[in-house]
Write a structure and sequence with these properties.
globular
Length: 225
């Protein structure tokens, strides 16, 4: 038996859902969207590693992503990854086995480093465009422009599935290589790890805690097998 929780890594609602589900579902195994290196950092067993970026684009992507995540987390009063920490704490207290199912972060960073020059240029162009647009007061922007270029959601909650679908489609359309590195490739790795876990533990209750953007893709891969 397997159950999924799709989380937002900065959402208080996700922390509550993790706690409620672990206590009610009583899993034998909890799978987390972490690799071993990030697990050690999250549990304060090692200091955060300074990764070596081989080009400006991968560095900017990491820097911007981390900045946005931390800024939104401060708005809702959490820290990135708090729902994973909650799952780890509950697993220890209730003697539940933990399984780390994500791809090694170094492999993901390597994939980002190898994206084409065309896509790198598109990213940098969009970053610069977004920066200058953010400086323009909203009263000077048309309603049509705002509607087309923004997606409304509450950072304190996990985005609805339809919003996640829209966002993922936009990323896949605009940055297919990044989408493949951050979503598709990791989905395959996590699905394979989950499948192996199910095969080795046919009578165990498994709880999978992953980012909401990975849930539909991983479920589809598991059903496909």
């Amino acid at each position: 038996m397997i159950k999924f929780i799709g989380t937002s890594h900065i959402s208080p609602a996700s922390i509550n859902e993790v706690e409620t589900t672990v206590l009610s579902y009583s899993p034998d195994i909890i799978c987390l969207e972490l690799d071993y290196g990030r697990f050690l950092v999250l549990t304060n067993q090692v200091k955060r590693k300074k990764y070596s970026f081989q080009n400006t684009t991968s560095f900017l992507l990491s820097l911007i992503g981390a900045y946005i995540e931390k800024k939104l987390a401060r708005v809702v009063g959490t820290s990135p990854g708090d729902e994973m920490k909650k799952a780890i704490d509950l697993a220890k207290k209730n003697n539940i086995k933990l399984q780390l199912i994500d791809q090694d972060i170094n492999i993901t960073l390597k994939r980002l480093t190898s994206i084409s020059k065309k896509e790198k240029f598109r990213i940098l162009k969009d970053i610069i465009k977004g920066f200058f647009i953010s400086l323009v007061p909203k009263k000077f922007l048309t309603k049509k422009f705002i509607k087309k270029n923004s997606i409304a959601f509450n950072p304190a909650d996990v985005p609805e599935e339809k919003i996640i679908h829209v966002i993922l489609n936009q990323v896949k359309k605009s940055y297919p290589e990044i989408y493949n590195a951050l979503i598709e490739e990791r989905n395959k790795v996590m699905a394979n790890n989950i499948k192996q876990l199910i095969n080795n533990n046919p009578d165990k209750k498994i709880l999978v805690i992953i980012g909401a953007g990975h849930v539909s893709g991983i479920k589809a891969l598991l059903k496909g097998d």
